[in-house]
Amino acid sequence: MLLALFGTNPYPFERLVVFLERMALEKGYEIVVQHGSSRPPVGCHCFDYTSHNRIIELMEKADAVVAQGGYGSSLDALAMGRPLVLVPRLREMSESLDDQDELVKQLTTSGRALSARTYPEFASAIEQALSTQRQVSADQEQSFGRAVAQAILDFLEKNERPPK
Hints:
Blueprint: E1 2-5, H1 14-27, E2 31-34, E3 45-47, H2 52-61, E4 64-67, H3 71-79, E5 84-86, H4 102-109, E6 114-115, H5 119-131, H6 138-158
Parallel strand pairs: 1-2, 1-4, 2-3, 4-5, 5-6
């Protein structure tokens, strides 16, 4: 089962909706989707929002997790050792106020996640995620935690605005 998490961003994420619809149609995968403010993808088991505990329960059953480029779902999936495919929301497509590139770059560069912006990249990343069982050790998690903390600090420093 694939678990796709759109998060709580108020902007629709039509690009990921279409990716999931196409994946369900072409591959016949069971796909469970937390779609948030986006429309529910056809051919998938969908809900808009639920509790964090329910998300964790679903992650435990998932063969792979698909998420936007935010921190919450990424950290949970990696902590649980689930293969992770990130589809960053893009400002140019009105999917978010800002591009979700910082964390996505950090996680893909470090080999902890796969990412996709187009459907062919998405289909390839899903196949790779499903064929690769990644079990993350405690040492890797500590290293990951430090890397995420540093990425956040770097981002804040780079984007620090003087007080008004």
